[in-house]
Design the sequence.
């Protein structure tokens, strides 16, 4: 029968991709060629206000006019276009297209030469049990010939069925396929998981690196599973095992594996989540799934618990889920109990909080990764540890991914492996301490004792080499000699080390030890330079303006800002952004200008916080989220002496700055006086004198 080429429609953004140019370039082509002999082709349709063009007409026009950077534009046009039978968000048509691409891959020849009944027979032959494509083909039975023609064009344009399949998936965001985009991950995230899967396969002594088994217990995690399989390399004999669920996402995954030539084995998951798997497998599971994108934390954690309970010691698991489920505080009681149960099992060997922006359609959501493996059978429950890492404020650049994967692979080892590995991001944390926390699982607060992993406390950005400090102080005392501003014997090495553990500001705020108060949004006309309240904002904190140079009239402030607040003595004023700045307001009664903020320590229960120490710690932070800051605390016995000593050092520093200012002024006056002839210098040694000109 005659074959009619389908009409391919392409949007302006699709044209830009086809031409390999930026989107504004296409608009420029349209405007600049409108009055020429070869104008840009006219649109043939519109879809929700979006103009659509004939893809072949545009591709031909680009080649004839020499525009764009794709000499194969005509052949590639189908990869960036749709045909009239497919509308954005049409899940039925999308399922049919992916099914027909899979059918063509298994059949080995084009489909456009076949009529409707022949295509249906071919589908029934390829999938007699209706597990992956028969239902999707039958859903467009009346339009099968048109769909088949488009599939042939698309496969030929993409130079293969697998590439054509992936090109359809790549357009899921533009086409508004919510079920496929709500849980889609960024390339950096999928690259991290594929690298981690490869490393876990290589480091698993119970498995076979050349013939690994990868398992998707959800049955629908196509992106992560496929990337992990392909990352194993062409020489690896990979076995893929997925759950025999009947959801649309599970059927799509089976088609995707088949079109890539990846053999699959299924397994049954009971309604209670029970399954039987004996291989030395690597489980890869992402939650929520495409089929249940709004699953509750309790439902997600129940699924993860099923995986943990049914793993044996030869198996590993990579779990990806929102940080709000795996790491953060605030879970409902039922979900919290399930999470605690999984942690108590000992199989959670590493917990990582990742930065925001790794979920393609939800840039504000933060993800976390759990790595599961065998529990430390030879270590008492009270001495077991979990490696934790917080990458909230970084980015998953290539070097970060490599070092994190190295840390996580080492976390699967025994005590000797952990001791010998130089961790960049992860650190050992007592599992009992994690279970006792009310805040984030990855905060720095619990020290691993020598009975467990290491002989030193956890490291943090605020960590100091405490053992070396006394010797360094002695060196400074010797260098300063009599100019040392403190009395002899006022500083000496401690006979016993007394410290409070590091704490996060979020926990301290929840427990009422500190508050973060917003600054006042001052109007420019209300800020002057006369008498009134001193105004402190980012200009003062960053040094662009001296403290005291800006003021707000007292009566005007009270009248215009009834909710405005003044500082109290000891408040720490902060600003965040490109650099962290903090300043202690010792006098109080200042106005803090937004976006600067106030950290106010509780007078009744400061929990070891001191304003000067807190200000120093703020400037050492990297995160702009103040609740995630890790800060030091001072034991009660040292609070008063440290406060007094710091006051003495500040006074000495102020006197030296005043002396330096006087020397600078004297330098300028000497230069000006001698140059003007009003001063003369009578000598060059230490006893030199200077006098007004003409007195000698």
Sequence:
């Amino acid at each position: 029968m005659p074959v009619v080429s389908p009409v391919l429609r392409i949007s302006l953004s699709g044209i830009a991709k086809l031409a390999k140019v930026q989107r504004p370039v296409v608009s420029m082509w349209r405007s600049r060629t409108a009055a020429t002999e070869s104008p840009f082709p006219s649109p043939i349709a519109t879809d929700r206000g979006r103009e659509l063009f004939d893809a072949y007409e545009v591709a031909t026009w680009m080649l004839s006019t020499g525009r764009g950077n794709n000499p194969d534009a005509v052949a590639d046009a189908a990869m960036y276009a749709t045909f009239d039978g497919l509308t954005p968000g049409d899940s039925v048509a999308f399922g049919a297209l992916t099914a027909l691409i899979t059918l063509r891959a298994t059949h080995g020849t084009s489909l456009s030469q076949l009529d409707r009944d022949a295509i249906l027979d071919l589908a029934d032959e390829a999938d007699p049990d209706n597990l992956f494509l028969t239902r999707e083909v039958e859903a467009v039975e009346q339009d099968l010939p048109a769909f088949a023609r488009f599939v042939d064009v698309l496969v030929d344009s993409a130079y293969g069925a697998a590439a054509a399949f992936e090109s359809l998936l790549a357009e899921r965001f533009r086409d508004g396929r919510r079920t496929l985009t709500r849980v889609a991950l960024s390339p950096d995230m999928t690259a991290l998981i594929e690298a981690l899967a490869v490393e876990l396969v290589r480091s698993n002594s119970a498995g076979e690196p050349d013939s690994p088994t990868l398992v998707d217990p959800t049955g629908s995690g196509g992106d992560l599973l496929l990337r992990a399989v392909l990352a194993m390399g062409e020489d690896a004999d990979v076995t893929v095992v997925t759950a025999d669920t009947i959801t649309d996402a599970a059927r799509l995954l089976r088609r995707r594996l088949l079109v890539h030539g990846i053999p699959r084995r299924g397994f049954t998951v009971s309604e209670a989540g029970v399954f039987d798997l004996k291989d030395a497998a690597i489980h890869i599971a992402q939650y929520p799934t495409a089929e249940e994108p709004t699953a509750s934390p309790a439902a997600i954690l129940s699924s993860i618990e099923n995986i943990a309970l049914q793993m044996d010691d030869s198996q590993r698991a990579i779990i990806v889920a929102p940080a709000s489920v795996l790491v953060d505080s605030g879970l409902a009681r039922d979900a919290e109990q399930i999470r605690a149960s999984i942690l108590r099992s000992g199989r959670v060997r590493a917990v990582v909080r990742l930065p925001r922006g790794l979920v393609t359609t939800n840039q504000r959501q933060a993800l976390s990764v759990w790595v599961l493996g065998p529990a430390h059978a030879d270590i008492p429950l009270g001495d077991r540890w979990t490696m934790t890492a917080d990458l909230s404020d970084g980015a998953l650049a290539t070097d970060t991914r490599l070092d994190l994967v190295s840390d996580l692979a080492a976390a699967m080892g025994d005590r000797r492996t952990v001791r010998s590995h130089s961790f960049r991001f992860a650190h050992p944390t007592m599992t009992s301490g994690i279970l006792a926390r009310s805040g984030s699982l990855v905060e720095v607060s619990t020290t691993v004792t020598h009975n467990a992993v290491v002989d030193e406390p956890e490291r943090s950005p605020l960590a100091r080499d405490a053992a070396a400090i006394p010797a360094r102080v002695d060196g400074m005392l010797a260098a300063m000699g009599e100019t040392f501003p403190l009395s002899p014997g006022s500083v000496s090495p401690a006979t016993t080390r007394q410290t409070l553990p590091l704490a996060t500001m979020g926990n301290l705020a929840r427990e009422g030890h500190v508050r973060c108060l917003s600054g006042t949004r001052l109007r420019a006309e209300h800020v002057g330079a006369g008498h009134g309240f001193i105004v402190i904002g980012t200009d003062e904190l960053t040094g662009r303006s001296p403290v005291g140079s800006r003021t707000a009239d007292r009566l005007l402030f009270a009248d215009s800002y009834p909710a405005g607040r003044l500082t109290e003595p000891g408040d720490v004023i902060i600003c965040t952004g490109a650099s962290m700045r903090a300043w202690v307001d010792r006098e109080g009664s200042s106005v803090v200008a937004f976006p600067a903020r106030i950290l106010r320590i509780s007078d009744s229960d400061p929990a070891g916080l001191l304003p000067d120490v807190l200000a120093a710690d703020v400037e050492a932070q990297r995160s702009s989220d103040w609740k995630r800051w890790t800060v030091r605390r001072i034991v009660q016995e040292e609070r008063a002496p440290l406060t007094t000593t710091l006051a003495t050092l500040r006074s000495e520093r102020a006197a030296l700055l005043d002396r330096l200012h006087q020397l600078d002024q004297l330098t300028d006056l000497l230069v000006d006086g001698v140059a003007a002839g009003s001063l003369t210098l009578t000598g060059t040694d230490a006893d030199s004198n200077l006098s007004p000109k003409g007195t000698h």
Notes: The chain has three domains: 8-179, 182-436, 503-634. Residues 503-634 form a domain with the Adenine-n6-DNA-methyltransferase TaqI; Chain A, domain 2 fold (CATH 3.90.220.20).
